[in-house]
Amino acid sequence: MDYSHVSCAHVTQTQNHRADPLTVLVSIGTHATLQTHLHLEREAAAEAIGKSSSKLQIASFIGAAEEVIMRNKQVILRDTVSGFPKESDMLVITGSTELKLPEGSSSGAVLVKNLYLSCDPYMRGRMAKRHPGDSYVNSFNPGSPLTGYGVAKVLESGDPKFKQGDFVWGITGWEEYSVITATEALFKIHNTDVPLSYYTGILGMPGITAYAGFYEVCSPKKGETVYVSAASGAVGQLVGQFAKLLGCYVVGSAGSKEKVDLLKNKFGFDEAFNYKEEPNLVAALKRYFPEGIDIYFENVGGKMLDAVLLNMRIHGRIAVCGMISQYNLEQPEGVHNLTSVISKQLRMEGFVAPSYYHLYGKFLEMVVPAINEGKITYVEDVVEGLESAPAALVGLFAGRNVGKQVVVVSRE
Amino acid sequence: MDYSHVSCAHVTQTQNHRADPLTVLVSIGTHATLQTHLHLEREAAAEAIGKSSSKLQIASFIGAAEEVIMRNKQVILRDTVSGFPKESDMLVITGSTELKLPEGSSSGAVLVKNLYLSCDPYMRGRMAKRHPGDSYVNSFNPGSPLTGYGVAKVLESGDPKFKQGDFVWGITGWEEYSVITATEALFKIHNTDVPLSYYTGILGMPGITAYAGFYEVCSPKKGETVYVSAASGAVGQLVGQFAKLLGCYVVGSAGSKEKVDLLKNKFGFDEAFNYKEEPNLVAALKRYFPEGIDIYFENVGGKMLDAVLLNMRIHGRIAVCGMISQYNLEQPEGVHNLTSVISKQLRMEGFVAPSYYHLYGKFLEMVVPAINEGKITYVEDVVEGLESAPAALVGLFAGRNVGKQVVVVSRE
């Protein structure tokens, strides 16, 4: 994927400016691997931002009088992260952007106003230093805004698939305005009778993840036993509901009483438990699955996977969606019970949503009516403003979110 | 599977009798879970065995004069094993057996003379104490002969699928004569223009394992890169040759210079290396697979699997056939790099041959001509006599065998 469309504000000031992001100085310059769309001179930028306020809509006019320069708050990754990410690994700055498609990038690109941003566990991997080819997505570029899934409104389009005023979801920047050149990763939103934020979750990447992961990867059959870890999260809550709709026996685990209550009372899981209160995960799973687990939807990894392997049934399937317990460890935990894969003839399959985007239309046909008929429900954990985004993202890895973690950049 | 057909000699004497297996006393009795076919009285048995010699064909006549009682050497498991198995975990005794199908078991059963026995890594799991449902095969019963794959000649048949004089391969006992009631696990041998011992290997369970594991589980395509560990073993040598026939690039690893030479010079692998001489397995694999591995045929587990996971390509497949490095550890090693399963969208699938026996005919149609035309070759490591069987089986786990480990019980 090409993330070079993301405008770059190279931060030169240090931490003492973080208290008020509006006072952070923005220097002009092109990050080694990125194009900049900032046309400010250093002094002009300092002046403009010095005068800016959170109400300021038009920051300044620089150069030709017809160029509209808008304030553009951005969430910047300071440097690659190892260990547990902290809020201070990110910086909320206020740069500015020219409110038009830049010359040369207009063909095929779109200029969008970002509305909702999605906090997803896979983003942890992108904060780390990785080598090309290690994964299907590249690392974030330190000094540049994060990128990720979001819902946005098209302000200007150089791509015939989109027109001004369209709502879209897909990969955008963690900022107020983005120029998106990789429009093949954007989906036009047709159904607007559901909350737009749902396109960061149930109707977006997590939704297609749950759908493809369960129906395609797990090969589920009616009556089978299904275990979902991190079950109240963006994906888990849907997998459990899909499995119930198919007629499976479904148990979920989560990390608080509140989440366990959600699983049982809102999402209709047959059983749920708080893994933090279980001294012995193997025994806990044996209690809920005396005959063993046919399908494990894996979001956690580590000790949980080890306990599951001992409780799988012959010919069981493990859809490996995520391993959130491992992402922040310097050295991942060892998984010791993999010989069960042979003796029980298990299939473990890792997958990512983009490999299943061809199913998106079919997925919508199933899930939109199910939402409207109340057969499927969805819980979001919404925070307001880009300033709240770093804490929201970091909170994912501490399990602070209850349901899908969404950041509101703007509601319109 | 039902192993209750295996005749039971319950050993009551202790280790001081082991020096000469012919002097071990055999007591009469029925093991809690097994039927015995021994009709000897304790005293008569002691007397018969006291008089026996290795040349003795007919040990004694007991009871009705028409009953022919044959010497029946057996390899008995003393007790369940933890850690590395030792020769002394097994005992070679000389019991005797009535040379006819026992009353009541004649319908559907066959009496066979065992010719060749197969030493297979999966047998290690059966030496351990396991619970029903832990695996697709049960543990061995301490005090009873081991069971496993072998080639045998039918002496008497109560199953219309087999007749006297037929050669068969399948699950039999580690003894000279066996009554097999689970005849659904027996295959009649039609092609006898290849060595009969091949039906413990290339034309038996290891052959169908390699065939199903490679063609069915790995979903291979011409031009893909294939890595095989334990590559000179019964299964690995075939997988490498199948992959070469399909037009793949194939690298194998083994544990000695002799085996590495075999891989390159006899089996035609593109490259091979001695894993014991590699200080860094990740770097070694990177050297042989600069663009990554599409298919890993897993026979080893542990550190090898960890190194492979870091070298897999996106959408790679890992056929998990065995993990021989783990079978003798009190606590299996941890595998740390499983998050690669997600980021690289890998499929890991454990499998066992019996799930693919429906392909046996198709497999023979492919492999027998290939053997006869010299397109596929096979190397066996043959030891003579049941007395050599415990050392041969234990040797598997130290990598002492070069090629398929076979025990000759009798050549006709």
From TrEMBL, chains A, B:
Superkingdom to which the source organism belongs: Eukaryota
Q: Which residues form a coiled coil?
A: none
One of the entry's Gene Ontology molecular-function terms is: 2-alkenal reductase [NAD(P)H] activity
Q: Which UniProt keywords apply?
A: Oxidoreductase
Cross-referenced Pfam families:
ADH_N_2 (PF16884), ADH_zinc_N (PF00107)
Q: Which residues form the Enoyl reductase (ER) domain?
A: 86-407
List the CDD domains: double_bond_reductase_like
**What SMART domains does the entry give?**
PKS_ER
Q: Which named protein is this?
A: Enoyl reductase (ER) domain-containing protein
Species: Prunus dulcis
